[in-house]
Amino acid sequence: MMMRGARAQGALGADELTRGYTIAGGGYDELVDGAGGIRPHWQSFLSELAALDEPTRSLRSEQLNARVRETGIAHDLFSDPASAAQPWRVDLVPLLIAPEEWRRLERALVQRARLFERMLTDLYGPQRLLASGAIPHALIFSDPSYLRPCHGLIPAGGFLQFFAADLARGRDGCWRVIDTHAETPAGLGYALANRMVHSHVAGGIFGSLKALRLAPFFQQLQAALARRAGRADPTIALLSPGPRHNDFFSHAYLARYLGMLLVEGSDLRAAGAELSLKTLHGLMPIDLIVRCTAGAAADPLELDATAFSGPVGLLQPVRKYPDLLANALGSALAENRGLSAYLPNLAERLLGEELLIPDGRRWWLGEESNRRHVFANLDCMVIRPAHEGTSRPGRAIAGIEVSRLSETERAALLGEIEMRGATLVAEEKIGFGTTPSLGAAGLVAKPYAVRMFLAATAHGFLSLPGGLAMTVDPDLTVALSAPEAEARDVWVLSDQAPPPHISLWRPTIAAAKVQRTLNDLPSRAADNLFWLGRYIERADWTLRVLRTCLSRLQEDSAPRQLRASRTALEILLSQGEGTIPHALQPTDTGLIEELARGLMVTAHWHYSLPRTLDNIHRLAGLTRDRLSLEAWRTLNEFYANRRWCADALPLGIGDSLLLIDDGLRVLAAFHGLTHENMTRGFGWTFLDMGRRLSRARNLAELLRGLFGKIKPSEEENACLLFALELADSFITYRTRYRLAPMLPLVLDVLLSDESNPRSIAFQLASLARHIDMLPHSGQGGERTEEQRMALALLAEMRLADVEGLAGSGADGTRGGLMGLFDRQVAALPALADLLARRYFNVLEKRAKWVRARSRVTE
Amino acid sequence: MILDVSHRTRYAYAKPVLQSQHLLYLVPTRTAHQSILRHSLLIEPAPSLTVARTDYFGNDAAILAIEEEHCELVIHARSRVEVKRPELALSAPSTAWDEVAAKARTGDGTLDIAVLQFVSASRHTPFVREAIDYALPSFGARRPILDATLELTRRIYADFTFDRAATDISTPVSHVLEVRRGVCQDFAHLALTCLRGLGLPARYVSGYLLTHPPPGMDKLKGADASHAWISLWVPQIGWVDFDPTNGLMPKDEHVTLAYGRDYNDVSPISGVLLGGGRQVMEVAVDVTIGQ
User: Fold this and answer.
1) A497/B contact by beta carbon, under 8 A
2) Are the C-beta atoms of residues A30 and A436 closer than 8 Å to each other?
């Protein structure tokens, strides 16, 4: 094995970075040429990097990956938040592509996209390629992604709106395509997000290198989508399988960047030839779907009966408008790995051109002569499915390496090839080129593969001047398979003057036309935002209760003064848990500490902090296309920062208080961001209604618990102070009354004072206002049930006689006060239920789509 | 022969179905050996939408949407067809099966894509070694293809027991082979698995069969059922049907509804329902000789 060191020539101070740079095996390296010299297009980057000292470089790397976590690229929504492994890292050093190299790649990729477009048009049309044997019929007819019900549906705008290819340089330095992605945008959102986070910390270097920006590509894409939609002001939705899909981050990110609605199959309805979105207002027509779901899973009626990724009956509107979906249904056929060997001939035949970049060395096992070759050379082969269908970069299946199999496994594999060869390919390892990565002691060469993206535009296919490179293990894989998810940005260097900077985050007037209107909120999104509001308020309340209780413990207050704390905690714990465990019965102090601790760490308690934060995280993920990036990043703090993991929560009261204060600050920042930055559409309305409902109920329950029964005056005083503090209304009270707390006045501030944003009346007034504005609310005389209910609750607060309520009955309870709060506590959930039934997709929540078919039995 | 078919399916749902969409393959095929004299389709409750289309395999399909909440659905198809399958002289020489398989494999241009597509495996007919081993004794080298396939059909009839309880829609062919039991679609899938496993183009046929009551007894109303058999491509002749459930080659008593790769392509009634809960299905099929 040959080892080669690198000499940095001409790069000022770069010696230190490249001193330890060695390339094992003598393969092709991006940074260093065969003679050990630094390739010219890396010189400026190296100088820039060398200008930073080691601590600064480490700091930048850390900042970069902190940004990755905050942006949420790193995690799967439903992975374990406590897991320390971070499944997505971005290298500070990008992959650099020289201008002439890029032009070559671009030509080759565009050629491929054109080739596959022609091929699909034939296979879903006249099938001449099959009749002539240019493609073996069994290769196509064995591929489950050949959607027969879609035969004859040829979109005028092409099958491939999106196209991507995974490339690797073999040891010989030649590019080869190792996989094709023709089904979905294939993780385009990751490439975009990588660039965003990377330029956040390396923007300066990027600027000085004259690398090409991504925004012009996305502008062209946006224009192409609008044209495909066929209307001046189209409604475009990105159809995702939902947050459980491992590509969901990319879907949400792309939808947000391009100003598309993010929808799931159940949000859509196909009725006859029309496709609509279910919104708060009713059905809204959709002009174009950017499809991020498998084609076969798009219609359970005519396609895969077990998959519900699209609306039932989707094929009907597609038959009328074959351009309705991008990519068109059936496009995945182009991903079949068995096609590799036939591509040169197809390029000749369909384009009259020579194939510019070939696929990796691959044999389709449905062909007898291929099987013979493969059986004779089994030990250097990797066996893989001909059709795989994963789109997340780095998640390709590594394949079965025959040389590692036992005798029995080998025999089984041979049998499998005999029977199911048409669905398998064998592949030779071609090795991977290497590219520099920033290690602790300078640059290190790492084997990599890269995904490049294309889009169809008015001027033909356009390639993204960037991409997504990932570190791969050449011993384990022949594909872009990177379980470690070490990613790097791809910079395409330019020898021309850079165009002016544009970003779609601030769209031009022309592009703004594709932005969503305010009234298109899908029912499901309204539902999720409503619950997000409720959980955020629950977290806020829980943290406040904990803070008030723990700070009293810390002050070592007298037991009587702690009664209020105990009551507040017990109310929280009685939600769902039933009763407090009997084991917890010693002194008040011990019990309170125990309960507070339990609330902080016990994941299965209904109102515990971990559970609430989990729910916030889940709902924020589900609604992230509705939240601003800052708002999302703010909430993600609870997830991304290990301090909030259940096992990392502090034990001491002092540390707990500091953490609680931080948590309240995060929530306050979120409130501020939504209040200041979120458009007052119905999304905001539902978020705020959730919050108001919870806040009113929490306060009503607390006040009922604290003041329902007459208590000794010292204890009642403590309760009054406690309530004021918890409701953040102490200062309001003091400035207004300049008196020691008295129950009637405290009730006035916390119940009826509509100018106090923490009072119950304030919550109810906001709720009533929101409800009046909702789509189905009656105007004037005719009010809906929920309108009447909200008004009744508000009226009761407005009419409350605080003096009378504070007075005591003969039995030592305040019957009037209890009754008032009982009614509120019961009515608020009922109101929530009414709203849910009217506005959310309860029809489909209540009932499930099921597949039914008859059996033939004669 | 003129045959009248009445095919009535009734679904009763435990909970209301809020919406439903259905895909039907209930219109008999129009071919050289079958013509439709009359056809009607009655659906209750009335669909808000009915679309008729010709599918990839050339079958008449109907797509319907019901938007009305319902607890019961009735689909009643009635057809009068004339069946006149040509009589095949079995003694006539036919191409050797291995020659057909070789043509199908190489795709030498003499076989149409419409035929070749039926060589590949499908969801319900995956290639399994056991099926090929089961078929091989009937497929000696150079044996005429009609002769070999009829023997396979008769062997399945002899070796397998008709048993409604032994299998369901999702039972794989390998299990059917193991227990040697099943219903007509299992036997059709088995025959297809054998023939395609040998490299021969064969397709699934969905339809009905005229049944005869035991001697001296009246035919019971609604006692028939939908039926399934297979069709094999034979050079110079075309598609030739075989019925492994009854061990014979259909003549005038088999009414064809649709052709596909397997049951999945041409299931007579399939649907997707919102709601419904548990459902009970009653099927009544009557095939009678037209007066």
Assistant:
1) no
2) yes
d(C-alpha A6, C-alpha A12), whole Å: 15
Query: Residue length, chain A?
Result: 858
For residue range A533-544, what is the model confidence (pLDDT) as tens digits?
999 999 999 999
Question: What is the sign of the dihedral through the CA atoms of A492, A193, A308 and A161?
Answer: negative
| Chain B residues touching residue A271 (CB < 8 angstroms) | 48-49, 65, 67
- What are the CA-CA distances from residue B39 to residues B4, B7, B257 (Å)? 10, 11, 12
User: So what's the pLDDT on residue A68?
Assistant: 85
Interface of A with B in 275-304 (CB under 8 A): 300-302
How many other C-beta atoms are found inside a 10 Å radius of the C-beta of residue A571? 17
CA B75 to chain centre: 19
Q: By the CB < 8 Å criterion, does B226 face chain A?
A: yes
Q: What is the mean pLDDT of chain A?
A: 86
Cβ of B270 and A851 within 8 Å? Answer: yes
For residue B225, give every residue at least 6 positions away whose Cβ sits within 8 Å of its Cβ, in sequence order, or none. A856, A857, A858, B283, B285
- The helix (H) or strand (E) run that includes residue A702 is helix A682-707
- Alpha-carbon distance of A540 to A763, in angstroms, equals 15
Name all contacts of A759-762 with Cβ < 8 Å and 24+ positions apart.
A759/A699, A759/A727, A759/A729, A760/A696, A760/A699, A760/A700, A760/A797, A760/A824, A761/A794, A761/A797, A761/A798
Tell me the nearest-neighbour CA distance from B35 into chain A, angstroms.
23
Q: Which pLDDT value is given to residue A13?
A: 61
Pairwise CA distance, residues B27 & B22, whole Å: 14
Chain A residues with beta carbon closer than 8 angstroms to that of B49:
271-272
Name the residue among A151, A271, A848 with its Cβ closest to that of B65: A271
What is residue A1's predicted lDDT score, i.e. its pLDDT? 39
Residue B234: Cβ within 10 Å count: 20
CA distance A169 to A70: 33
**pLDDT per residue over A311-321, tens digit each?**
999 999 999 99
Number of residues in chain B? 291
pLDDT digits (tens, 9 = 90+) for A144-156: 999 999 999 999 9
Query: B238: which strand partners?
Result: B234
Pick from B21, B128, B206: CB nearest A419: B128
Q: In this complex, do A847 and B18 lie within 8 Å of one another by their Cβ atoms?
A: yes
pTM of the model: 0.85
Taking an 8 Å cut-off on Cβ atoms, the answer to whether B121 and A142 are in contact is: yes
Of A822, A823, A769, give the one whose Cα is nearest residue A791. Answer: A769
Count helices and strands in chain A by DSSP H and E runs: 29, 23
By C-alpha distance, the chain B residue nearest A856 is B226
**CA dihedral of B125, B127, B131, B136, whole degrees rounded to 10:** 120
* Interface predicted TM-score (ipTM): 0.95
**Facing A856 at nearest CB: one of B49, B126, B185:** B185
Name the token pair of B193.
């698995």
| CA–CA separation, A203 and A592 (whole Å) | 51
SS3 of A428, please? strand
Asked if residues A341 and A362 have their Cβ atoms less than 8 Å apart, the reply is yes
How far apart CA A70 and CA B172 sit, in angstroms, is 48
